[in-house]
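Check out one such.
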Amino acid sequence: MPPKTKEKGKKTGAQKKKQNAGADVEAKSAHRRTVLEKELLQDHLALRRDEARRAKASEEQLRQRLQVLEAELEEARSEGKAIYAEMSRQCRALQKEMEIHSRKLEEEVTGLREQLETCQREAEAARQEAEQALGERDQTLAQLRAHMADMEAKYEEILHGSLDRLLAKLRAVKPQWDGAVLRLHAKYKDSPVWAQPPGSLKL
């Protein structure tokens, strides 16, 4: 039993040494963390101060740039106003010119419409006159054809009448002519005159 008591005492002392060593390590670690945190805070603070200086410098540059931009903007506004005034003047002049040109075109269109209406009326009148002239010509041609047909019928009637009268006269004198021919033939048939060439006989 006593030997067991000694072993327990040894174990308790070793444990205490281990606990003390662990506490020292933990204290050193805490100190080191504190130092590191302090250094980090100092670095962070320095970084912040540097950023603040840069921000201040940037702010000053931005302020100066803003002043320049405001001056340029004011100048651009002045130029814009001048350009707007000039463009407005040119626009009014162009609008006035367009109104004058539009009135001229309207007058020309009105004149052309009047001329077109006049031409249409004249063309219609000419067409009616042409139709009337064609109608009169057709009527005249029809009258002339009818007159010519009537004259042809009358001439044919006159010709037939004249031929009929001539034939009647020929038929009336034919017996006398035949008798005279026979007498002449009997009178001259033995005469030397019949021996003469044709055309030399004298009655």
Q: What stands out?
A: The two ends are 223 Å apart (CA to CA).
